[in-house]
Automatic annotation (TrEMBL):
PROSITE patterns per record: HIS_KIN, PAC, PAS
Domain of life according to the entry: Bacteria
Entry keyword annotation includes Nucleotidyltransferase: no
Enzyme Commission number(s) from the entry: 2.7.13.3
Protein name: histidine kinase
EC primary class: transferase
Residue intervals of the Histidine kinase domain: 343-561
Annotated organism of origin: Myxococcus landrumensis
GO molecular function: kinase activity
Keywords: Kinase, Phosphoprotein, Transferase, Two-component regulatory system
Basic residues biased stretches: 1-21
NCBIfam families associated with the record: sensory_box (TIGR00229)
Keyword Membrane attached: no
Record-linked InterPro entries: HATPase_C_sf, HATPase_dom, His_kinase_dom, HisK_dim/P_dom, HisK_dim/P_sf, PAS, PAS-assoc_C, PAS-like_dom_sf
Length: 561
C-alpha cells in the first residue's frame, strides 16, 4: 500500500476537527522558562519560572504550561533539528549567547535574557554591552572582545555588576562566537567565604605563634590512638634545637631531664596512665645540646575513652629560665643582705668597743695619776690605739659609701699627673708602725719614679686595702710589697704567707660581701677587694690572685700608667 502524501494527511486531520495547539514564541515577553522534557509527539511540556533558577530547587508543577510546536515543524519523525536545538537552548540552565563576527547578538536564550535584564527580542542585533551599558568595561566585556578579535575561545570567571558570578565558556563556531555562562554565584560566595575564613585562621595562627614566641612558650598534643604528635613551631627551641627535629619522642624528652628532676616527672606520668590523675604540672631542668641547663614548666591534660584509657594528651610548656635566675638572684640578695648586716654590725662594733675602752682607760688614768700629761708614754700608747681604731672605722664607713656609689654609677675619679712610686712609698711608711704593732714584718721594694696619670686617693685606697688584707690574713708572717715597671705599665704585688686563697674562690672573693672561709674567721665585710677591682678596672688595669711561693696569697695589680 502506498503512503499518502504529507499534505493529504494534514487535510484529513483537519477534516476530523483536530487542531494543533499553537506553540508559544520562546522569545515572547512572557518568555518560555526552562524546558524540562517533551510529552507526546508534537507537544512540549515546559515549566514557567519568571526568575532564574536559584538554590531553592526546581520549579513545581504549579508553574507548568503546555506549548505546541508551530505548524510545519513536525512530521512522522518528530520536531525538526532546528526546533530541537531551540528547545535544547531553552532547557539549559546555562545562559547562551550567539554573537556574530561584530559582536552582535544573533541568538539568545531566556536565561541569558534574564541575566541581561532585557526581553530577548530587544537583545537581537545588539552588542551585549550596548544593550546593557553596565557591562561596558567589565572583565566579561574585555574577554569577549579579545575572543572576537583573536578568534580564540577559552574559559574564565566573570562578575556582573549585579554581583552575579559566571563561569563563562567561549567557543568559536565558524563566523560565530558562542558563549555559554553558568551562574556560580553561590559557589563563588562559598569559596570566598572559605578563603576569608582560612585567612582569618591564618592571621590568628600567626598572632598566636607570635604570642607563644614572645612568652617563650609552646603547645603540644600527642594522640596515642594514631601515634601522631603535634608540636607548635617553638617547641623544639625550648629544648635547645634552633630548627625543628624530624620527630619528637617521649624517650628524648626523658633523656633531656636533669637527673634530680627525672624521677618526679616520671612519677606524674605514671599516675596519669594508671588513672590516678587527669592533669599534669611539673617544673624541671632540661639539658640543651650546648651543655647548658634551662628551666621549663609544663602543664597538660588528658582525654580518655569510655574504658578510661588515655587517648590524647595535650599541654603547654613555658621557658622560665630567666624567672628562675631572678628567683635565685633574689634569694642570694636576701642571703647577702643578712650576711652583710651581721658582718657590718660586728665589724663596726669592734672599733667602737675599742674606742670606748680606750676612752675609759684614759679617764681612769687621769683619775689615778693626775700629774700625767698627754705626752706621757702610757697616754701616747692609748692615743695611738684610738687613732688606729678611728682609721679602721673610717675605712669601713668609706667602703660602705663607695659600694653605694658603685651601684649607682657615681664613684667619681679625679685623674692628675703624679708619681705612683711616691704614693706607694708613703703608704708603706704609714703601715710599718701598724705592722710592727701586729707583729708582722713588712718589707717593700719600690722602683721609681713612676710618673703617670691616675687618681691619687683611689690608688691609695687600693694599696691600703691590699696591705690591710695581707696584715689581717697573713697569720703574723712577713708581708712583702713590690712596685716594678714592665713593658705595658707598672705592676704592684702584695704577697703574704698566710693560708692562701683556694682556686675555686679566686674570682668569687672580688665580688661584693664575699669572703673565703679563712676571711670569715678573721672578720671583715667582704668589700675591700670588690672596691679594689672597681678602681683598678676604672684605671684600665686588672687584678688577680696567685699562690705565693712557700704558701700564702699574692695579689697582682697591673696598671697601664
Amino acid at each position: 500500500m502506498s503512503r499518502p502524501r504529507r499534505g493529504a494527511r494534514r487535510k484529513r486531520a483537519r477534516g476530523k476537527g483536530r487542531s494543533m495547539p499553537r506553540r508559544a514564541d520562546a522569545h515572547s515577553p512572557g518568555g518560555v522558562g526552562n524546558l524540562t522534557h517533551l510529552e507526546r509527539q508534537g507537544t512540549v511540556q515546559v515549566y514557567m519560572n519568571p526568575a532564574p533558577f536559584t538554590a531553592s530547587g526546581p520549579p513545581t508543577d504549579a508553574d507548568s504550561v503546555t506549548y505546541s510546536l508551530p505548524p510545519g515543524t513536525e512530521d512522522e519523525q518528530g520536531p525538526s533539528d532546528g526546533t530541537r536545538l531551540r528547545l535544547l537552548r531553552e532547557m539549559m540552565s546555562e545562559a547562551f549567547l550567539c554573537l556574530d563576527a561584530h559582536g552582535r547578538i544573533r541568538e539568545v536564550n531566556s536565561r541569558a535574557a534574564a541575566l541581561l535584564g532585557l526581553p530577548a527580542e530587544e537583545l537581537q542585533g545588539q552588542e551585549p554591552w550596548v544593550a546593557e551599558p553596565a557591562l561596558a568595561g567589565t572583565s566579561l566585556h574585555e574577554r569577549l572582545m579579545a575572543a572576537l578579535t583573536t578568534r580564540e575561545g577559552g574559559r574564565f570567571l566573570a562578575e556582573l555588576p549585579s554581583r552575579t558570578w559566571l563561569d563563562v565558556n567561549v567557543q568559536i563556531v565558524g563566523e560565530e562566537t558562542w558563549v555559554l555562562a553558568a551562574d556560580i554565584t553561590g559557589r563563588q560566595r562559598a569559596e570566598n567565604e572559605v578563603a576569608r575564613t582560612e585567612e582569618r585562621f591564618r592571621q590568628l595562627g600567626e598572632r598566636f605563634q607570635v604570642a607563644l614566641d614572645s612568652a617563650q612558650m609552646a603547645v603540644w598534643e600527642t594522640n596515642l590512638a594514631t601515634g601522631q604528635v603535634f608540636r607548635s613551631e617553638g617547641h623544639d627551641r625550648l629544648y635547645g634545637y634552633p630548627h625543628p627535629l624530624t620527630e619528637w619522642t617521649h624517650e628524648r624528652f626523658i633523656e633531656s631531664l636533669h637527673p634530680d628532676d627525672r624521677m618526679g616527672v616520671q612519677t606524674q606520668l605514671d599516675d596519669i596512665f594508671a588513672g590516678k590523675a587527669d592533669t599534669y604540672a611539673s617544673t624541671f631542668r632540661t639539658a640543651w645540646p650546648d651543655g647548658t641547663w634551662h628551666w621549663l614548666t609544663s602543664r597538660a591534660r588528658v582525654l580518655r575513652d569510655a574504658t578510661g584509657k588515655v587517648v590524647v594528651i595535650r599541654g603547654a610548656i613555658l621557658d622560665i629560665t630567666a624567672l628562675k635566675e631572678t628567683e635565685f638572684a633574689l634569694q642570694e640578695a636576701v642571703r647577702t643582705r643578712d650576711d652583710f648586716l651581721s658582718l657590718a654590725s660586728h665589724e663596726l662594733r669592734t672599733p667602737l668597743t675599742s674606742l670606748r675602752l680606750q676612752a675609759q682607760l684614759l679617764r681612769r688614768l687621769g683619775d689615778s695619776h693626775p700629774p700625767q700629761t698627754l705626752s706621757a708614754p702610757r697616754v701616747q700608747e692609748k692615743l695611738e690605739s684610738t687613732e688606729r681604731q678611728l682609721r679602721r672605722l673610717g675605712a669601713l664607713v668609706d667602703n660602705l659609701l663607695d659600694v653605694s656609689r658603685i651601684r649607682t654609677g657615681k664613684l667619681d675619679f679625679q685623674f692628675t699627673e703624679g708619681d705612683l712610686a711616691a704614693v706607694v712609698g708613703d703608704l708603706v711608711a704609714r703601715f710599718t708602725d701598724e705592722a710592727r704593732h701586729t707583729g708582722v714584718q713588712l718589707t717593700a721594694s719600690v722602683e721609681g719614679p713612676m710618673v703617670g696619670r691616675f687618681d691619687r686617693l683611689r690608688l691609695e685606697q687600693v694599696v691600703s686595702n691590699l696591705l690591710s688584707n695581707a696584715l689581717r690574713y697573713g697569720a703574723g708572717n712577713p708581708v712583702r710589697l713590690s712596685l716594678t715597671r714592665h713593658e705595658d705599665g707598672v705592676r704592684l704585688v702584695v704577697r703574704d704567707s698566710g693560708p692562701g686563697v683556694p682556686f675555686q674562690d679566686r674570682e668569687r672573693i672580688f665580688e661584693r660581701f664575699t669572703q673565703g672561709d679563712n676571711a670569715r674567721r678573721r672578720g671583715g665585710m667582704g668589700l675591700g677587694l670588690y672596691i679594689v677591682r672597681q678602681i683598678v678596672e676604672a684605671h684600665g688595669g686588672h687584678i688577680r690572685v696567685e699562690d705565693s711561693p712557700g704558701g700564702g696569697a699574692t695579689f697582682v695589680v697591673e696598671l697601664p700608667i
